[in-house]
Amino acid sequence: MVVTNPEVSSVRDSDRIIGLLDSKTIKAEKGETLEKHLILTRYDTARAARGDMLKVEDVLEILSLPLLAIIPDSQDVLRASNVGCPVTLNSPLSAPARAYADAVRRLQGEAVPMSVPTDRRSFLDKFFTRRAA
Amino acid sequence: MNLLSFLKVRQTAPQARERLQLIIAHERAEVGRSQLVDLLREEILAVIAKHIAIDRDKVQIRVEQGQEVSTLDLDIELPGSFHQKKAA
């Protein structure tokens, strides 16, 4: 599982790792191929559309791995990390948590259409979560 | 400055894409080259070792890249007995 951000340095590092997976692993040395998946994290659909962030297609074109999931950039991830809890458990209904859940279902062979989950909250939702926090 | 040029300045992703393609192309070439150098070194040493006993620690290999020509420089120290044998 190769996890990368839509940033030059991150994609570069991932390319190196893919190179190592293809040449230095026991499977590679035996002449077998290793099954690889790509997870693109910290993705911001709006910034990518604005031309301010590498698009999914750009990253896929360079790394040429099958895409497993796109995880949206979210404040929930740092919040969960701060308290030492995976975002999938800390805020299971958040957009990144749902994206990870989709990734798991795809790995298990379910045909889940590729999408970037978003946090669509109503005004009232926002109001109450702020008050609660 | 019209609206179009303003948009062009703001868009940084195309630049990121170009930088990335350049870096990746460079690095992939580098990896290929170092593997080739390792392979050449092993094969050349094997050929020489068939005829002369050489000390593997006394082998130096250097690749120099010029603008138009690159050179592969192999420096192999031969044992002292080599010349005598040849002369005999």
TrEMBL record, chain B:
InterPro entries for this protein: MinE (IPR005527), MinE_sf (IPR036707)
Gene3D superfamilies found in the cross-reference section: Cell division topological specificity factor MinE
Gene Ontology BP annotations: cell division; regulation of division septum assembly
Highest taxon above the source species: Bacteria
Matching Pfam families: MinE
Record keywords: Cell cycle, Cell division
NCBIfam families in UniProt: minE (TIGR01215), PRK00296.1 (NF001422)
Purpose of the protein: Prevents the cell division inhibition by proteins MinC and MinD at internal division sites while permitting inhibition at polar sites. This ensures cell division at the proper site by restricting the formation of a division septum at the midpoint of the long axis of the cell.
Protein name in the entry: Cell division topological specificity factor
Species per Swiss-Prot/TrEMBL record: Methylobacterium soli
